[in-house]
Amino acid sequence: MSKLQPVRGTHDLLPEESRRHRHIVETGLAVSGRYGFGEIETPIFEFTEVFKRTLGEASDVVSKEMYTFTDRGGEELTLRPEGTASVCRALISGGQTQNLPAKFFYQGPMFRYERPQKGRMRQFHQIGIELLGAGEPQADIEVITCGADILDAIGVLGRTTLEINTLGDTESRQAYRAALVDYFGAHADALSEDSRRRLALNPLRILDSKDDGDRRLVDGAPSFDDYLNAASKDFFTAVTEGLDRLGVRFHRNPRLVRGLDYYCHTAFEFVTDALGAQGTVLAGGRYDGLVETMGGPAIPGVGWAAGIERLSLLAEGVAEPSRPIALIPVGPGGEAAALTLAHRLRRAGYSVEHGYSGNVGKRLKRAAKVGARAALILGDDELARGAVQLRDLDAGAQEEAPLDRIEESLARFR
Ligand code: ATP
Ligand code: MG
After folding, report:
1. CA dihedral defined by 403, 409, 413, 414, rounded to 10 degrees?
2. Hey, which of 45, 94, 225, 352 has its CA 20 to 30 A from 71?
3. Is the pLDDT of residue 10 over 90?
4. Closest listed residue to residue 239, CA positions, set 134, 102, 131, 136
5. pLDDT per residue over 54-96, tens digit each?
């Protein structure tokens, strides 16, 4: 393979796609800002331990998706596969664990060694929020509602369904876990190899399996609801009633579990059928044990992450870049005038395309190609009179306009 190819599963963000990504990030930042979230930017790599300890050895991410390497100093490092572990590490190492609740928004690239396909890449981008230090169901409600508001603001909410479930507290999860071990243990022969490993390490994860044989077994598995204690039920009821009161529509999916080890209580995903197999656009839940697992105090947390590439495929209302004014000099006097005029108009806030070479026809063609709204044709004769030709490129009409007040003539093309 040629060295000049991009690495499999990575892609370049050209201006059009960059603009869509930027729009999603900025909308996320603005909407979450109304909920009191502030931006945090953590390093792109961390000690491998940060992810290994939190995501769990049995998770797909740790067992087969991490980009791990040893640096020149012999440190074991990993390119971050997700944001939550890094944010919690930052809270602890930055001595912020007394300063609660803490609300963070993040955005940026994540890295997972996956099989590349539509909506699934090895370097992809996420926005996400984390609310740390609030164990009340109100926090779950706010975090989910904030996600819904962001999806709404980028025109995506209407094509998604919010699926929600509870993973209960530790006691309920242990009871359910035992029931799953009994059930899947009795069918171990029919399980995929991955799920046989999960059976020993984290049987809940089998519910999340994408293997067809596993899925058939999952259909007959015991239901979590039969193992939830009263406290877990009350918590979940408070969350769903809050969502009801706010008009956030959801669908209970009792099989929904999250792929990572640290979740409890609320788990949720906004899914769409508009993207084929990769239908989850935003996913998250409550992770009360995580900060403690990392060696910090017991600080509850709830948050979500959303894939920007998947959102970008669905987003609507992304503003087009402003259409430029084209400068078309004719002759040496025009060239000199164009140089200073371009500078003057850009400082006045116009986007200006200065055609660098070619005759008038060629430059007009290029002006059309870059989507120019109007062209200023700078001919020596007109310049001698202190004027230029102003052509409306949409209407085709052309008129002479005074150079010293050209901003006034251009105002209607803003
Ligand atoms: P999936 O089940 O699709 O593998 P996941 O459970 O691994 O998702 P999370 O870790 O919850 O995903 O990440 C949150 C979101 O980030 C996903 O819902 C998705 O939108 C996006 N995402 C995850 N992995 C990728 C990837 N490899 N390429 C593009 N987007 C991704
Ligand atoms: Mg995954």
Report:
1. 80
2. 94
3. yes
4. 136
5. 888 777 888 889 999 999 999 999 999 999 999 999 999 999 9
**Rounded distance from Cα 413 to ligand 2 centre (Å):** 47
State how far the Cα of 211 lies from the Cα of 192, in Å rounded to an integer. Answer: 7
For the residues of 87-123, what is the DSSP string, one character each?
HHHHHHHTT-TTS-SEEEEEEEEEE-----BTTB-SE
In this structure, the answer to whether residues 145 and 31 fall within a common structural domain is yes
Assess whether 304 and 399 both reside in one domain.
no
CB of 259 closer than 6 A to ligand 1? yes
Task: Mark which of 286, 314, 342 sits at the end of a domain.
Answer: 314
307: CA distance to ligand 1 center in Å?
6
CA dist 64 and 122 (Å) reads 12
Do 51 and 142 belong together in one domain? Answer: yes
- Of the listed ranges 141-145, 149-153, 265-269, 320-324, the least confidently predicted one is 320-324
Q: Is 126 in the pocket of ligand 1 (CB under 6 A)?
A: yes
Residue nearest to atom 16 of ligand 1 (CA): 307
